[in-house]
Structure formats: C-alpha cells, structure tokens
Amino acid sequence: MVNEQMANLKNTPFTEIHIALGAKMAEFAGFNMPIQYPTGINQEHMIVREGVGVFDVSHMGEFWVKGEHALDFLQYITTNDLSVIAAGKAQYTCMPNGKGGIVDDLIIYKYSTTKYLMVVNAGNIDKDWTWVNKVLCDKIQGNNPEWADIKLENASERYGQLAVQGPKAVELLQLLTDADLKSIDYYAFREWSFAGVQGVILSNTGYTGAGGFELYFPAEKGKQIWDALFEVGKPFGLAPIGLGARDSLRLEKWYCLYGHDIDDTTSPLEAGLGWITKLDAKDFIDRDFLKAQKAEGVKRKLVHFECLERAIPRNGYDICDEAGNTIGHVTSGIMLPNTKVGIGMGYVRTPFAKKENIIYIRIREKLQPAKIV
To answer: Residue 271 CB: number of other CB atoms within 10 A?
Structure first.
C-alpha cells in the first residue's frame, strides 16, 4: 500500500537525483520529496547556517497575473500594499479568506504594473487557484466588469525551483552568472542567464534566514542547473538539503509554516502578521473584519518560546499555565541542532502572551517550563 501511494505522488525535476543520493523520501503536499539525506537533519541545518546548501522547492506553485487591472485585483485579494514596491521587487503577503482566516501566505513578484508572479505554497496550489479564479469571476460579474481584461495562468508544472541558501551562497552562485548578484537587494529579483539557461529568475529571497537566492527556471532545465551548481560548489562544500532541515531553519528564525502556524482559522493579526496587513492603505477582503479585530484586540496570539529544560515541543501539544490549565497549543516545535534547546511556536490566550512570561508545555503528562521570547 505504501509503495502504491508513493507511486501516485508527483515528482519534481530532481526526484530521481534525490533517490540516487540516498535521500529519505516521503509525501509532502502531494509530492515525493526528500526529507533528509544520509548526512542527517542536524548536519544539514548547520551546513546552511555556516556554508551553503541547496533545497529542491520545485513543488511550490506559480501563478501569472497579467492585465491592465492586475494591480487592482492583487490589492483586493491580499493584505499587503503592493502599490508601494517598484518593478523588480518582491513582496511577502497573505490572502484572507473572507471569514477572518488565511487562504495562504505567498510572495508576489512585480514585473510591471500589468504583470505579476504569485508564488504560493505547494499544499495550497489547487485551493489557491480555485480561490483567485472565484474572486475574479465574482468581481467581474459584480461591480468590477473591467477586470475581465485580467489573465490568470497556473504555470506551476512548468517551473522548477531551487533555493541556494547560506553565507557562501552568493559567492558560489556568482560563478554561474554575469548578473551582479550583490546589486540585487533583499526581496528583489532579476531575470538573467544562469548556468547557460536563459531567463532564470534570480530572487534574493529564501525561508532559512541564512541568506542566498531562489532560482526559478523551466522544469526541463533542472538537471542542467543542478549539475552546474554541484560542479562549481565542490570547493564550497555545497550539499543537498531536505525538508527536515528546511523546517528547523525556518523555525529557528520564527518564520510561519502554512498548515501549522497559520491556516484558514487564524487571522493575520493573531499570527503576528500585522506588519503585512495594511488596514489603512487600501480596500481588501476582510479589511472591515480585521479593523474590528484590531480595535477589539485579539483573543489569542502566536508566541515564540524556548524550553527551559531539555524537552522537544511538538505540534498539537497543550500549552498550559502553572496550574496545568490549558491556555493554547503548540503549532511547531524542534530541538535546535546547534544549541540543543527546544523551541516552538504556538497560540495562547492573549493575557499569557507577554514576552518573558513562563508557560508550560504538556509533554507525556509532564509540564515542561518554557519562556516566551
């Protein structure tokens, strides 16, 4: 049964390479993905923090949005203010679901005022595609018939994507392109030739907090780019990194993971994403709801915590007060490879969400103390 399930999963341009390298493969968002390589998650984590690693993130989704009213549409379906960024820049944002929750968090790349690329989470591709089409259709049939000029394209299957992350990433990548990577600011991008492939999107973004670039390219060019990276990457100690270390790296930097820390039931304000929720800049889905929620104050907040004793918090564990009363739940948790400290994120009732406050994680019926950081 397991083999049958794995056979039905989607592959990326690099699946066979991962298997040949001995990666532990598992289902993630409908794809057959590498969780870790024989080196192990802890070592992979440190490779990215101290050197450079490459992640296969080809499972992510890409939607093109084009047309005279493309900006108006994107402003309406997302919380951040896309009008403030210039062409060649990217923006982190989220899509509210009309019920106070989050459809997805995503990055939008601005090519011009009439051309944008949305990069969405792998597990949400179908849901997001249905959502953006429904909203557009409803608005065209409603009070925005002029939006009929907008063209949406789900190009997810046409793209491969690699994230090259770590303090040595830029130096390595520069050997494969004549684009001046140091001139591409954080959350900026450029289309350029890379490893002999034309039109590669070189994006100064990533979800590790270690620096580096994300590369988008035609899926059929994936092996060419992979081979070129590892050829020039030998002196840098370049290594393939699995989704296990991707998770530990993002959690170490307190980055949210959709489906764990944010979802259709969490509002951006509860999740600490008020900084991408521009309530006074424009009209958008759920704006009135979020304005009211901000005025009233949220009843729960996403907090970051460190365990004070040796313990590993896990998704779903209860968060308690000193008396053992449940005040929330853990959404993500790990033990950091370098410090061996258990850290996590979770929602707690607002009165308990103050920095330095001591909370307790219920692990196998024992209350493990942790401090909100």
So the answer is: 25
**Helix intervals (H) in the chain:** 2-7, 15-20, 41-50, 70-77, 125-141, 169-174, 222-232, 243-252, 287-296
**Which residues, listed in sequence order, are joined to residue 25 by a DSSP beta bridge?**
34
Domains, the chain, in order of start with CATH, read: 2-58+158-252 (3.30.1360.120), 299-372 (2.40.30.110)
* Residue 217 bridge partners (DSSP): 160
CA distance 300 to 349: 4
**Residue 68 to residue 148: CA distance in whole angstroms:** 10
Tell me the average confidence (pLDDT) per consecutive run of 10 residues in the chain, 373 residues long: 67 98 97 97 97 98 98 98 98 98 98 98 98 98 97 98 98 98 98 98 97 98 98 98 97 97 98 98 98 98 98 97 98 94 98 98 96 98
Beta bridge mates, 154: 63
The pTM of the full predicted model, rounded to 2 decimals, is 0.96
Edge-to-edge strands, sheet with 90-96: 90-96, 102-112, 115-120, 61-66, 151-154
